[in-house]
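Hey, resending since the last one bounced:
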Amino acid sequence: MKEDMIRNRPVVLVLRAFFKFTSYLFIRRIMENITEKTTQKTRSNLNVRVMVVTAMLSAVSFLLAFLEIPMPLSPSFAMMDLSDLPALIGAFAFGPVTGVVIELIKNGLQLFSTNTGGIGELANFLMGASFVFTAGIIYKRRKTKKTALIACIAASVVMAVVAGLLNYFVLLPMYSVFMPIDQVIAAFGEIIPFIKTKLEVILFSAIPANIIKGLMISVFTMLIYKGVSPILKGEK
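The structure tokens again:
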């Protein structure tokens, strides 16, 4: 009997090793399934939160659009608002695409009460989207206070360039529907005396004014983002 045990020992060792190996694979598979289900559940919860927060920030952005203030370096008919602020917060919290979606929803809602045939809303969307997308994509690379500052400055410049192009080719011609373009330029000249041409309106009014606007929104965002970010992400 002892000889049989010795003779069968290799078989026993093989069977034991096989049992251990299959047990390991079985347990590993169970753990992978648990992890996968947990990840899917977490991802699903995150997606729902992002959608809810995006809707909430879009509503706030839409309401802020009604609180207009005079545009810097511009005549009284040129107004601005801080409705890009919620979109910038969304871009910092969940990425640049979320910021662009908030801008899209806000301007889509404004179409129901537009008096520009949608042209003003399209221009506003392009300016706002360029602002929050630039800031969001820079901040996404490295989420630090310094990066956020760089992102906001760069985004303000990008928005100013986009605003300059849109003002030259879209918005100033749109204003000329209500008054001759010479009168529009003269109105800007009353604020900045050396403005005599449409190009000078862009260079010395539209671009600097939108840089100021972008920096104003950035300052407010930097002040409140740290406080609201954990709430938006469900960390509080």
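DSSP finds seven helices and two strands in the chain.

Sorry for the duplicate.
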